[in-house]
UniProtKB/TrEMBL annotation:
This is Aldehyde dehydrogenase family protein. Residues 16-469 form the Aldehyde dehydrogenase domain. Belongs to the aldehyde dehydrogenase family. Keywords: Oxidoreductase. Coiled coil: none annotated. InterPro entries: Ald_DH/histidinol_DH (IPR016161), Ald_DH_C (IPR016163), Ald_DH_CS_CYS (IPR016160), Ald_DH_CS_GLU (IPR029510), Ald_DH_N (IPR016162), Aldehyde_DH_dom (IPR015590).
Length: 475
């Protein structure tokens, strides 16, 4: 059994949590110890005790550790990518690519550790100097989801450590293998005892204890859970950063290049089994191109190979577990009850190994008022909304409680420019899938999708540091 990591020691918890391969439910990836509230409190105390020394460590020390983590991830990308795909269900190429992305994030923040910003400004008073400094916040609680079990932990852990904070990391219970492997790499890279701690288990069991023991919490997951985290954090007057759901629109105008639009829609809506918060689950299509677009997307979906994540040739792996599969099938049934037309897919599939396989599902004749277009399904399911023109497309695209990512396919510079300026989302794509991001620029949304400072890139400094203004009378 793989243990939790607390105060520099690997510690057993309660009953082991079996990690089931969604491509083959007879395959148990491993057993992972579950922490309890007391262990979480111990981890937070260890982090708090380690914080003063770690906060005073040199930027070079932190940079070297983060760079070493990135180097080991790159060296083991095939091994760790296989583990990731085996426990999460995304195809092997995507699993390996995610490990590489995690490595890139660690190496990026190794550089940022040496570039912690500050300012010296002139005072309004003679003989006075003013320095604006950035200092670490303290102990950061990190709660991550199952859909990117290596990349999302990386883009939270790396900046936290780079800026001199200590960490208590709780991964999603569905994907403990990638989290444990990452934790083992981080601890061997030279992080002092207590600076980095891993506690595994369901959020319902240890989530409150985590929020109660830290100075700040960063969370990625569902809207409902995010709101509970925020309420508890605000009750303690600690800062929180939330990345939650999306119901992202992809607008396709009559003047779009059809091949580009189809590629963007199929990639953004269905690859990685649609299990991305940036997935384009609403395809908002103008009348002149609607029928050709639907026919081309349908033809492409019917050719996609759904199968075991590690099998060569597979393009879409399984849904992550039985609960997510049942949720997907439930939304498919709801859409049909509300009058949507199932154009293709939406069936549970049987493959050589028992797993949670679902054919990618496209609905037409949907409206923006249908639940299929209002609520996040988080599976390989998308609805097409027919609109008259660009103005209606923009209105429909923005008519959502979410605001994470949006996209437009068009050859019109006028419409592309207007959409970039008027889309009510934190991420805007032109002639690209709504999913697919760079690691060195800010990530985050608006409305119900995000709360608090942006993640990733140099903007991460806003959450992981606290500003101090120091005045000095010279002489």
């Amino acid at each position: 059994m793989k243990h939790n990591h607390i105060a520099g020691r690997w510690m057993a918890g309660g009953d082991g949590l079996d990690n089931v391969n969604p491509s083959d439910t007879t395959d148990i990836v491993g057993s992972y110890a579950v922490a309890d509230g007391g262990m979480v409190a111990e981890a937070a105390q260890a982090a708090r005790a380690a914080f003063p020394a770690w906060a005073r460590s040199t930027p070079q020390q932190r940079a070297d550790i983060l760079d070493a983590v990135g180097s080991e991830l790159l060296a083991r990308r095939e091994e760790l990518g296989t583990l990731l795909s085996r426990e999460e269900g995304k195809i092997l190429a995507d699993g390996i690519a995610e490990v590489v992305r995690a490595a890139q994030v660690f190496k990026f923040f190794a550089g940022e550790a040496l570039r912690i910003p500050g300012e010296k400004v002139a005072s309004t008073r003679p003989g006075v100097e003013v320095d604006i400094l950035r200092e670490p916040v303290g102990v950061i609680g990190i709660i991550t989801p199952w859909n990117f079990p290596m990349a999302i932990p990386a883009w939270k852990i790396a900046p936290a450590l780079a800026y001199g904070n200590c960490v208590v990391f709780k991964p999603a219970e569905l994907v403990p293998g990638s989290a444990w492997a990452l934790a083992e790499i981080v601890t061997r890279a030279g992080v002092p005892a207590g600076v980095f701690n891993l506690v595994m288990g369901p959020g319902s069991l240890i989530g409150d204890a985590l929020v109660d023991g830290v100075d700040a919490v960063t969370f990625t997951g569902s809207v409902a859970t995010g709101r509970r985290v925020a309420q508890r954090a605000v009750g303690r007057m600690i800062r929180c950063q939330l990345e939650m759901g999306g119901k992202n629109p992809m607008v396709v105008l009559d003047d779009a290049d059809l091949d580009i639009a189809v590629d963007a829609a199929v990639n953004g809506s269905f690859l990685q089994t649609g299990q991305r918060c940036t997935a384009s689950s609403r395809l908002v299509v103008t009348e002149g191109i609607h029928d050709r677009f639907v026919a081309a997307v349908t033809e492409r979906l019917e050719r996609l190979a759904v199968g075991h994540a590690l099998k060569p040739g597979t393009e879409i792996g399984p849904v992550v577990d039985s609960r997510q599969l049942e949720q997907d099938l439930s939304y498919i049934a709801i859409a049909e009850q509300e009058g949507a037309r199932r154009r293709c897919g939406g069936q549970r599939l049987t493959r050589e190994t028992p797993g949670f396989y679902l054919s990618p599902c496209l609905f037409t004749e949907t409206t923006n008022a249908m639940r299929i277009n209002r609520e996040e399904v988080f599976g390989p399911v998308a609805g097409v909304i027919r609109v008259r023109d660009y103005d209606e497309a923009l209105s429909v695209a923005n008519d959502t409680p979410f605001g994470l990512s949006s996209g437009i396919c068009t050859s019109s510079l006028k419409h592309a420019t207007h959409f970039r300026a008027n889309s009510a989302a934190g991420l805007v794509m032109v002639n690209l899938p709504t999913a697919g991001l760079d690691f060195h620029v800010p990530f985050g949304g608006r409305k119900g999708s995000s709360y608090g400072p942006r993640e990733q890139g140099r903007y991460a400094v806003e959450f992981y540091t606290s500003v101090k203004t120091a005045y000095v009378r010279a002489g």
